[in-house]
Amino acid sequence: MTPRPLDKVLYNTQNIPIFEYKLISMSELEVLENIGTSAVRRLRNSKLSTGKPFMINADELPSGQSYLEYPDGKVWVV
User: Fold this and answer.
1) 1-53 per-position pLDDT tens digit
2) What is the pLDDT of residues 64-78, one digit of tens each?
3) DSSP bridge pairs for 8
4) Cα 39–42–46 angle (5° rounding)?
5) pTM (2 d.p.)
6) Is the Cβ–Cβ distance between 10 and 19 less than 8 Å?
7) CA-to-CA distance for 34 and 75, rounded, in angstroms?
8) Of 40, 45, 53, 64, whose CB count within 10 A is highest?
9) How many CB atoms within 10 Å of residue 72?
10) How far is it, in rounded angstroms, from Cα 24 to Cα 6?
11) Which residues lie closer than 8 Å to 73 by C-beta, 6 or more apart?
12) Contact (Cβ atoms closer than 8 angstroms) between residue 4 and residue 17
């Protein structure tokens, strides 16, 4: 992926593009939020595609509990 003018591409350590954004349309905070969201989505897809559950932390659950999403779509509180 070649950056277009006024665009920026961030790369991971293997020099694979991980996120592209427009410099003029987003604040630095929005860019960081989108990078974080993109990373979590990739991790979720990676875990579920290999048959492993994905842990979801949520403030509404009691301390020490979280959700586990399984590849079959079921979600359990653990």
Assistant:
1) 444 444 555 555 555 555 555 555 667 788 888 888 999 999 999 999 999 99
2) 999 999 999 999 999
3) 21
4) 140
5) 0.60
6) yes
7) 25
8) 53
9) 8
10) 7
11) none
12) no
Give the per-residue pLDDT at 4.
Answer: 46
Query: What's the pLDDT score for residue 48?
Result: 95
Question: Residue 53 and residue 76: Cα distance in Å, rounded?
Answer: 10
- Strand order through the sheet with 67-69: 54-56, 67-69, 75-77
For residue 52, give Cα distances in angstroms to 22, 40, 45, 48: 34, 15, 10, 5
Q: Supply the pLDDT for residue 34.
A: 86
Q: Which two tokens stand for residue 48?
A: 């579920």
21 beta partners: 8
